[in-house]
Specification:
The protein folds into 2 domains: 3-60, no CATH class; 64-199 and 287-519, TIM Barrel, CATH 3.20.20.140. 28% of the residues lie in helices and 20% in strands. It has 16 helices and 18 strands. The strands form 3 sheets. Strands 1, 2, 3, 4, 5, 15, 16, 17 and 18 form a 9-stranded mixed sheet that branches. The chain has a 6-stranded parallel sheet with strand order 9-10-11-12-13-14. A hairpin with a 2-residue loop joins strand 1 (3-13) and strand 2 (16-25). It binds zinc ion (ZN). Zinc ion binds at residues 71, 73, 103, 395, 397. Residues 71, 73, 103, 395, 397 line the site of zinc ion.
Length: 534
């Protein structure tokens, strides 16, 4: 048995950052023994009963558990020109991410049936540099597929309350959510929601104006922007970009209509012609905070009904993905206080970027829900530190440059999504998170969320030897040229970040070294298909 050890004066154990030594097996990929408090000598390790094949002391660099990024869109098969298993997982390990959980949508077909899941697994074969687990999709008419998908190893299901932007992944409604919660009683799984909802204007008591944060100018058309259907799909429904997303075919130039033109036609309101689609504020006003608060209120309502009806012990866990609005925090807080089984994540971009700083036409900052005000950004940090939000993920969702429509810079007609898998550690570190916080939010709590906290996310005996070796004292410049994504376009091009991941190990094998080796020659990642036990 090939036995190795790695040690440093800085090891991120669950108990805190301490000197430590980790002994692991390359053969089984498991941690065999950990010593918190000391960098042992080879003799001391031998005295503990371990005959080492090699020993590496990496001080002053930090050893931390590999990240579990539970929200990544790899888009394969079907939209492989956007990303792919190979490029996406290579980018992940280059940033210390050793496990990603792939989202059920934006690949074709989506992961909504067993047949589709098999196609996804075939596509992943031989292309994984990190371990990859899978979410299933909750879409109309697939309730019969949920239990078989759980058995096949999906970690849970994600559904939309608003247009997802792709035809093959339609939204679901309250009735359907309640049916799903009922059907999944007693199952070890999780139901997750993209929580944005556009209610008909009449049924809504708020206006956008009295809801909006400081620092964002208002203008008269904002209420209209958030009520027209033409602008409410998560991704553009009209125009050339929409055609490229939906149908992959050439669209005659003279019939192009922009989403804003479509909205003007729909609302029969000429004032929308005054809206500047290249101004980020216009886009922000089209997706107000109440989209999120309305959606989360509805979900909490469904969960409460389900708990009252079927009992709390048997209720599946509910999780809100990419929570972006501070206004939703009190709703979440209340739901937790009354004991509902609900958690929520936020993303690197909501914690590191603010609407006030997004320049005109820079559509690579577009995502849904949108990046909101600086005040909002700070409130999300507070919510994390209070434990109200429990995890931070990338929501890595790239696309081709054409779909970002950069030449025109029209936010409404650009695909939404920010590419950032693998940038999480330095992004959070630069913005003031401690290593212990990063480990809690991005390793421990995400592994719990996906039911893998018996083997991933912690540096403990018996766990997978997944390590990220992090230089806390250097700086790196993120550039589009340097990223490993298939489409080299990020919202962080030109950002100077504190810290750099030097090496990444997946189950005891080095898969990335910033100096020398680069990526391992062979893909050493595996699919994660074990059924959840929690
Ligand atoms: Zn997503």
């Amino acid at each position: 048995m090939m036995i190795k050890a790695i040690a440093s004066n800085y090891v991120a154990f669950h108990e805190g950052i301490h000197p430590g030594t980790i002994i692991y097996s390359v053969k089984t990929g498991k941690i065999l023994d950990t010593v918190c408090g000391n960098v042992l000598t080879e003799q001391e390790i031998f005295n503990r009963g371990w005959d080492l094949d090699s020993y590496e002391i990496v001080s002053p660099y930090l050893i931390m558990p590999g990240l579990v990024d539970s929200h990544v869109h790899l888009n394969e098969p079907g939209r492989t020109e956007w990303e792919g298993f190979e490029t996406g997982t290579k980018a992940a390990v280059a940033g210390g991410v050793t496990t990603v959980i792939d989202m059920p949508l934006n690949a074709i077909p989506p992961t909504t049936t067993i047949e589709n899941f098999k196609l996804k697994l075939d596509a992943a074969e031989g292309q994984l540099w990190c371990d990859v687990g899978f979410w299933g999709g909750l879409v109309p008419h697939n309730l019969d597929h949920l239990k078989p998908l759980i058995e096949a190893g999906v970690r849970g299901f994600k559904g939309f309350l608003i247009d997802s932007g792709v035809d093959e992944f339609p939204a679901i409604d309250k009735r359907y959510i309640q049916q799903a919660l009922h059907i999944l009683q007693g199952e070890k799984t999780m139901i997750m929601f993209h929580a944005e909802l556009q209610l008909p204007e009449a049924g809504h008591e708020h206006t956008v104006v009295d809801h909006h944060g400081e620092g964002i100018d208002e203008f008269d058309d904002c209420n209209m922007l958030s009520t027209v259907k033409s602008l409410s799909s998560v991704e553009p429904k009209y125009g050339q970009v929409s055609e490229l997303i939906q149908h992959h075919e050439e669209y005659p130039m003279d019939s192009i209509i922009t989403p804003l033109e479509a909205a003007e036609y729909e609302a029969n309101d000429k004032s929308l012609a005054n809206v500047d689609p290249c101004d980020y504020k216009s886009f922000l006003l089209s997706r107000p905070d109440h989209f999120e608060t309305d959606a989360i209120s509805l979900i909490v309502d469904c969960l409460r009904n389900s708990v009252l009806k079927d009992g709390i012990e048997r209720s599946p866990f509910v999780h809100i993905v990419h929570l972006a609005s501070m206004e939703a925090l009190p709703i979440l807080k209340h739901a937790k206080e009354i004991g509902l089984p609900i958690t929520a994540e936020t993303c690197f971009h909501y914690l590191s970027l603010a609407a006030e700083n997004i320049p005109e036409s820079k559509t690579f900052y577009k995502c849904c829900p949108p990046i909101r005000s600086e005040k909002n950004r700070k409130a999300l940090w507070n919510a994390l530190r209070q434990g109200l939000l429990t995890s931070v993920v990338s929501d890595h969702s790239p696309c081709t440059p054409e779909l970002k429509n950069l030449a025109k810079g029209d936010f409404f007609s650009a695909w939404g999504g920010i590419a950032s898998v693998g940038l999480g550690i330095p992004l959070l570190y630069t913005n003031g998170a401690s290593i212990a916080e990063i480990v809690k939010w991005c390793c421990e709590n995400t592994s719990k969320q996906v039911g893998l906290d018996h083997k991933k996310g912690f540096l403990r005996t018996g766990y997978d030897a997944d390590f990220a070796i992090f230089d806390m004292n250097t700086y790196q410049m993120v550039t589009n040229e340097k990223v490993y994504y298939k489409n080299k376009l990020t919202a962080y091009d030109g950002s100077k970040l504190k810290g750099l991941v030097r090496n990444t190990y997946v189950r005891g094998k080095m898969v990335f070294a910033v100096e020398g080796m680069g990526h391992s020659e062979h893909p050493l990642g595996q699919t994660i298909l074990e059924r959840r036990s929690t």
